Amino acid sequence: MYRSMGRLLTASLAMLLLGVGAAGAGRVVSCGESWSGSAELAGDCSGDLLIRGGSLNLRGFTVSGSVRCAGDACEIYSEPPQGTLYGSGDGASTGIDAGEGTVTLRSIVITGFGTGVKAGRVTATDVVVIGNAGHGIRATDWISVRDCNISLNGHDGLHARLGRIDVRRCEFLGNRGRGIRALKGVELVDTEVAGSGGSGVVNFAGLVLLDHTMITGNAGDGVRTDDSDCFPTGVLEIRESTIAGNAQGSECGEERACADLVSCQIARLGAASHCETSYRIQSGLPGQNWRICSEDR
Predict the structure, then answer these.
(1) Helix (H, G, I), strand (E, B) or coil at 199
(2) Which of 80, 129, 78 is nearest to 106 (CA)?
(3) Residue pair 72/101 in contact by the 8 Å Cβ criterion
(4) How far apart are CA 200 and CA 12, in angstroms?
(5) Residue 14, phi then psi, degrees to nearest 5
(6) pLDDT at residue number 229
(7) pTM, two decimal places
(8) DSSP per position, 93-109
(9) Which of 279, 296, 275, 276 is nearest to 288 (CA)?
């Protein structure tokens, strides 16, 4: 199911205005504190928080500051939902910094930082990461997101430096870098990637699977899988998805070939799927296409 950019961004920005909820279990903390174990936020506050292994329930309140996770794993969530981490616009700041640890996020908003989230591994559900100056979510290893809106960030929406990315029912709209970047595979289901300043999806090795997904209006390639040396060769499989209207940015032209689908081997284009242009890596300029998209000649 594809949802419109206008409706999504309106709803996401409205989430930033929502507030107070009922208290849950756990130690009550405020900005400037550190702890281990479970905790819940006392109320709106300004300043940073440090979790030494454990969890934080934002309880629908707003923290004007960052959260750092010093243990191997931490969880940050909000019951009721839409608790917010709000940055000052400092491009060097990070909303949630878990180092090389694992962080689990649920029902929160992260906005106004340099990087929204930085960790070794990230799991996020019902999370909004919007309006950060750099990457929305950056991980060393893998990223798994569900029901999320990761939009209007200054660099990549998701960036998995060494691992893979798995996405269900999310929207990536208007990120100024790439919508999604991974090293070892991407799986997108019921997801939209649109309006990126770079390519929609970039992956360097392994399977890229698109299922009921729309990738449109990105300045660079719609989907690019494989590095320029085509080793190892990845696989691009498309099921009931649309990849169209991409490759219109200034980076595309006489010195760089761009297309909706860019790969080292022909994509598996399933029934009810549509693309407009394709390009075979290592075929030069203007290069060869795979003769599988509507405008391929």
Answers:
(1) coil
(2) 78
(3) yes
(4) 21
(5) -65, -30
(6) 83
(7) 0.91
(8) -EEEE-TTSEEEEESEE
(9) 279
Closest CA to 220 of 237, 201, 236: 201
Is residue 147 helix, strand or coil? coil
**Rounded (10°) CA dihedral 229, 189, 176, 142:** -60
CB contact at 8 A, 112 and 134: no
Give me 256's structure tokens.
Answer: 């760089």
Residue 161 · residue 140 · CB < 8 Å: yes
CB 141 within 8 A of CB 162: yes
- What residues contact residue 252 under an 8 Å CB cut-off, 6+ apart? 219, 220, 258
Residue 6 is given by DSSP the state H
Return the structure tokens found at 288: 């060869």
Determine the Cα–Cα distance for residues 16 and 9; give it in Å rounded to an integer: 11
Which one-letter DSSP state was computed for residue 47?
A: S
Please list, in sequence order, all residues whose beta carbon lies within 8 angstroms of the beta carbon of residue 273, skipping any fewer than 6 positions away. Answer: 238, 239, 240, 241, 242, 243
pLDDT in tens, 181-210: 999 999 999 999 999 999 999 999 999 999
What DSSP element (H or E) covers 217? none
* Exposure on the CB side of residue 28, measured as CA atoms within 13 A: 8
DSSP codes of every residue in 144-203: EEES-EEES-SS-SEEESSS-EEEES-EEES-SS-SEEESS-EEEES-EEE--SS-SEEE
DSSP-derived letter for residue 4 is -
Q: Is 64 exposed, middle or buried (0-12, 13-18, 19+ CB in 10 A)?
A: middle
d(C-alpha 171, C-alpha 110), whole Å: 15
Cis peptide bond upstream of 232, omega within 30:
yes
| β-bridge partners, 125 | 106, 146
Q: What is the pLDDT of residues 231-276, one digit of tens each?
A: 877 889 999 999 999 999 988 987 889 999 999 999 999 989 999 9
Q: Is the pLDDT of residue 26 over 80?
A: no
